Amino acid sequence: MSMNLDEYQKNALATLSNNYDYGDVTPQMMGMVLGLAGESGEVLEKFKKILRDKQGKLTEGDKKELGKELGDILWCVTTTAHLLGSSLEEVARQNNEKLASRKNRDALHGSGDNR
């Protein structure tokens, strides 16, 4: 069945939800969460270029630049945790507990948040 882009757009927009209520989510929090995606994308882009242009050979400069981007991600994580009423310490503790539980249950591999 053939479909042109105008038909696709009409069908796609029919499924667009207006059911967004921002509740406790502030513009500041949205900015931090969106920043996580942006900064993560910068790490991925730099890494892609290392693979593509340098055949995976990391220079000290590459490591420094990736470290800067990881610092930006850490900043976004820290501020998001704060805006959620938590701390980086609490986030790290919960993550260690989650991973230890998965290891104890031999569930490190696989998919799904609650494995």
- What is the total tally of β strands? 0
Query: Distance between the terminal alpha carbons, to the nearest Å?
Result: 40 Å
Spans of at least 5 consecutive residues with low confidence: none
- Helical fraction equals 55-70%
Report the total helices: 4
Q: Report the order of strands and helices.
A: HHHH
Percentage of residues in strands: under 5%
Average of per-residue pLDDT values:
92
Largest sheet: none
Shape: extended
Rg, rounded, reads: 20 Å
Would you tell me the structural class of the helices and strands? mainly alpha
Would you kindly provide a written description of the structure presented here, covering whatever features stand out?
The protein starts with a helix and ends in an 11-residue tail after the last helix. The model has no long low-confidence stretch (mean pLDDT 92). The chain is built from 4 helices and no strands. The longest helix is centred in the middle third of the chain and has 28 residues, at 27-54. The protein is 68% helix and 0% strand. With 115 residues, it is mainly α. The chain is extended and about 50 Å long.
In short:
The chain has 115 residues and is mostly helical. Helix content is 68%, strand content 0%.
What is this structure's SSE topology?
Layout: H1 5-13, H2 27-54, H3 60-83, H4 88-104
Helix pairs in contact: 2-3
Features:
115 residues; mainly alpha; extended
